[in-house]
Amino acid sequence: MTNYSIAGNNLTEMSRHASAKISRQIYYSHTNLVVVDEELAKDEGLIQILDVLDRDTDFRSSATIIISRGHKAKTFIKTLTPVDKVPSNKVNKTLQFTEQQLGEHLKTSVQDVIKCLTSQSRHPIITSFRVKGDLKKADKMENVQSTAPAATVEADGLAVFKEGKLVNWLEGETARGVLWLRNKVNRSYITLEWGQQKQSVTYDVIRQKTNVSAKLKHNRPAISVHVEMEGDIGETTIPIHLDDPQVLNKIEKSAGQELKKELQHSISVAKQNKTDVLQFGDIIYRSYPGLWGKMKHQWSNRYFPDLDVDITVDAYVRRTGLRNNPNNLDHGEGRS
């Protein structure tokens, strides 16, 4: 893998100047990853970058786009990673895997961002990546030859954009809550408290469906969210009788309550930042286009922060694993 660095005022200018360094024509159809560093995303924004990419007949708009958090984009693409030696392959495979298994990150293409910027909500979210470890060894071959690499590339939150510029970060359960509300979560997990002991039961989410609809409440638009999720008992750290229907019913209610709190928190953060990353504006536009026409110019700053949102969560336990009762059942009583 070879890296070239070209300076210029815009991408068209840089592409032309690249001919002085590269003995081959740049073929953008092979591009599968676009990396934008944090500083550029904050100061200049994405609109100019996306404009030239969208106009170029050779460029594939299906290419993944990410934000390099805390480092320049050139530092990121120079980092050599184990298993997948090329960073672009590492990023795409990591995004595909973590999107399916965790639900805190999202694989976003250039086309997805362009569509979002032209939608009613206009607040894209893009997964950020960070180089962690020893940056001096990140581009050295020894980094991929070691069983414990000195530097690694990791997905690290969601970047939130407003008017084309990076304005905020979403991380952990807050990021997952946003993706859950957008029905982008496939599998994940929820840890539950049992008998005042925190993180005692792990509810392993195997599938879920989020329905978001708009309604009128006191002549004002409101949002209704209904989540149905199914899961297995992933593990328990306390003695409980999983063959007792009342215990399973309590776990289901607890899982539903935990997810509801998580979604409410994500909505609260989005409202505080005045960024409709939840795309509620699009839903209201489709349901009440006439009413939306009166609100759209002040949606983010005036109407969205005061939006009434109702949430209902139905959780179901499908399996308890290869055994109903844990190995530590004899060490305590777990029916309460």
From TrEMBL:
The keyword Transmembrane does not apply. Keywords: Germination, Lipoprotein, Membrane, Palmitate, Signal. Residues 4-129 form the Spore germination protein N-terminal domain. Coiled coil: none annotated. It is found in: Membrane. InterPro entries: GerAC_N, Spore_GerAC-like, Spore_GerAC-like_C, Spore_GerAC_C_sf. Belongs to the GerABKC lipoprotein family. This is Spore germination protein KC.
